[in-house]
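Inverse folding, one chain.
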């Protein structure tokens, strides 16, 4: 699931990230079926859920962006996944204040916490693995660097209608304590048909990356609904160990 979410973050189109949030609202919930290619057949292995809730502290109001991924019970004996990704962001800009990651993947355990300081252009990182030892570091970042989850939501707030087929742009994301530079290409509009949602016109975006762990035999593509919400309707990924997709099966609070 780490590879799936890593692929997802790289699809984030960097045009217009500074504009005020008019798309992502509290109460939204998106549910995806995660499928993997096994012996030439796409097989549903897990469910991915993305939720947005408003939270208030004594000093501010933030949006809590939460993403969970879990294999279905019948697959747990093969490779059990229980992942949690969270970001607390400014509701107007979707810029992150705090990011958390807590993953269990086939016995692999990792917890991360990032505290963003854009004034100093740093992230205070706390990381622990199975042994429980916490390692703290300060990671320098650029002024437009975001975490994986907030980047996914910022994607939907951009005016992709201004893009032309073939346009290539870049963004910066901090993941695994490393700031990554990635390019994406806008391909154009395309109609797709989903079992649960029917025929949908989407913006088609292609990932272009030098990351070896994301370079499979096929293309990495994300389809965003060509409307005001720009929901990630279908994500196709190809990595060295295989290929698969995430398919949107339900949406609430849109």
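Residues assigned per position:
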């Amino acid at each position: 699931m780490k590879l799936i979410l890593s692929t997802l973050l790289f699809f984030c189109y960097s045009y217009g990230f500074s504009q005020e949030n008019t798309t992502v609202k509290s109460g939204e919930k998106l549910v995806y079926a995660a499928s993997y290619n096994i012996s030439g057949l796409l097989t549903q292995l897990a469910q991915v859920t993305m939720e947005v809730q408003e939270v208030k502290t004594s000093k501010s109001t933030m949006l809590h962006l939460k993403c969970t991924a879990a294999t279905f019970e019948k697959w747990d004996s093969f490779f059990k996944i229980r992942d949690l990704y969270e970001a607390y962001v400014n509701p107007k800009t979707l810029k992150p204040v705090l990011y958390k990651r807590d993953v269990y993947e086939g016995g692999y355990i990792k917890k991360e916490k990032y505290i963003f300081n854009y004034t100093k252009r740093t992230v205070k990182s706390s990381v622990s693995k199975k042994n429980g030892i916490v390692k703290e570091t300060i990671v320098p970042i650029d002024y437009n660097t975001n975490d994986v989850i907030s980047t996914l939501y910022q994607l939907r707030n951009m005016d992709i209608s201004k893009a032309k087929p073939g346009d290539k742009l870049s963004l910066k994301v901090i993941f695994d304590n490393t700031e990554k530079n990635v390019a994406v290409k806008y391909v154009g509009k395309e109609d797709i048909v989903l079992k649960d949602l029917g025929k949908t016109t989407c913006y088609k975006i292609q990932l272009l990356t030098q990351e070896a762990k994301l370079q499979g035999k096929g293309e990495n593509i994300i389809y965003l609904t060509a409307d005001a919400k720009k929901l990630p309707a279908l994500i196709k990924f190809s990595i060295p160990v295989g290929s698969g997709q995430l398919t949107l099966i339900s949406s609430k609070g849109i």
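The chain has one domain: 2-249. Confidence is low (pLDDT under 50) at residues 8-16.
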